Amino acid sequence: MTRILISFIYYGFYLIFPLLFLLIYRTYKKRKVQLEIIVLMLISFVFIWARFVEPNFLITKNYNLNIQNNSQNTLKVVVFSDIHLGAYNDTVLLKRAIKKINKAKPDLVLIPGDFVYFANKENLVENFSVLKDLKMPKIAILGNHDYGKNENNMSKLISSSLESAGVLVIDNKIKILEIKNKNIEIVGLGDLWVGNPDYSILKPSEFEDKIDLTILLTHNPDSIYELKKDSSEIKDINLMVSGHTHAGQMRIPFLYKHVIPSSHGFDKEFYTIDGINLFVTPGIGNVVLPLRIFDFPEISVLNIGF
Fold first, then answer.
1. Which residues 6+ apart lie within 8 Å of 73 measured at CB?
2. Do 37 and 66 share a structural domain?
3. pLDDT tens sequence across 123-149
4. Alpha-carbon distances of 210 from 11, 78, 184, 224, rounded to whole Å
5. Tens of pLDDT along 276-305?
6. How far apart are alpha carbons 164 and 98 in whole angstroms?
7. Average pLDDT of span 5-25
8. Which residues form the Calcineurin-like phosphoesterase domain (predicted)?
9. First and final CA of the chain: distance in angstroms?
10. Chosen domain end from 13, 30, 54
C-alpha cells in the first residue's frame, strides 16, 4: 500500500502541468486581474523548479578543515549520502555523482548511509554496480532507510550488493587504511535509530599511538551525544561524518528546521560538539516528497589538514 502511495505521489506531480495550464487559461478568458495570472505563473515556476530542476542540479562543494595548527599532512575526502535509490531516484543521478567524484580525485570516499527508499530488491546488485567506477577506497555504513521491518529488512542484501561493487561496509567495525604513508582509522557506528550501534568500538585500543587520523562514520548526527554511552573514555576522534538530515530538503524559511529529523537541530556543514568536529552532508536524494527547495543535492569535498 505504501509503495502504491509513493508511486501515486511521484507520477501525480506530472498532472500539475495540465492543471496549471487550465487555471491560467480560464483566468485569462475571464479577463480577471493580471496579478492572478502572475501569481499562478510564479507558483508554477517554483513548483517546476523544486520538482524537476533543483533535485537534479547536483553540485560539488569544497570545505577546509585543519585538525591542528601548522598541519603537515592533507587528506581529500569526498562525502556523499542519502542516495535513496528507488521510488524517486534511479541510477542517473548516482552516475553523475560518480563522474563528479572522479573529477575531484579524492583520496577516500565516505558514504554515511541511506542508500534506498522503497527500492526493488531485484535491482540492487545491478544498481549499485556503478559504484565500481570509483577507483579510490570507498567506505560506507547503512542508514535508517536501509533496514526495514521483519521480512522487508534489506540491510544484508544492501551490504552484499555494495560489497560486490567494491564498497566496504563497516557498521560497528573499524578499518585502518594507509594513505600517503599515514594510518587513517575509519570507525563505523551503526545507525542510531535502527542499527544497534555498538559504542564499545569507540574505546581506545593499544594501537592508538600508531593512528594519524581518526574519522567516525555514522548516519545520524545525533549520535554524537551518545558516544560515551558505553564508556566515559573514548578514542580521540578528529572528525565525525554524518548525513540523514537532507538539510531540510525543502528549506522554506522559518519552517524547514521544524521538519529536520534531528533532536538536536543539526542541519548541514560543520559543528563542534565536546571538542569533536562534526560534518553533516545534505545528501543527494529525496524522501517523502520528490522536492528540493534552496537545498541542492551535494557532493561534499573535505580538504583535511592534520
1. 180, 182, 212, 213, 305, 306
2. no
3. 899 999 999 999 999 999 999 999 977
4. 54, 24, 10, 24
5. 999 999 999 999 999 999 999 999 999 999
6. 17
7. 65
8. 75-247
9. 50
10. 54
CA distance 198 to 217: 13
CA distances from 14 to 52, 190, 270, 284 (A): 10, 38, 37, 22
Q: How many CB atoms lie within 10 A of CB 210?
A: 10
CA distances from 48 to 44, 253, 293 (A): 6, 19, 11
Cross-strand bridge partners of residue 230:
none
pLDDT of 73 > 80? The answer is: yes
Those residues whose C-beta lies under 8 Å from the C-beta of residue 259, and which sit 6 or more positions away, are 248, 250
- Contact of 64 with 303, CB cutoff 8 Å: yes
Stated pTM of the model? 0.90
Candidates 295, 271, 273, 293; CA nearest to 284 is 295
H-helix segments, the chain? 2-12, 16-29, 34-48, 91-104, 124-128, 155-164
Residue 137 in grid coordinates:
577506497
Same domain (yes/no): 134, 248: yes
Identify the domain boundary among 35, 54, 73. Answer: 54
Cβ atoms of 184 and 178 within 8 Å: the answer is yes
Statement to judge: residues 46 and 180 lie in one domain: no
Name residue 20's amino acid. Answer: L
For residues 251-262, average pLDDT? 91
Q: Report d(CA 81, CA 134) in Å as an integer.
A: 15
Say yes or no to pLDDT of 261 above 90: yes
pLDDT at 114: 97
124 and 146 together in one domain: yes
Q: Is the dihedral of CA 255, 260, 263, 265 positive or negative?
A: negative
pLDDT greater at residue 168 or residue 28: 168
Length of the chain: 306
Q: Is the pLDDT of residue 47 over 80?
A: yes
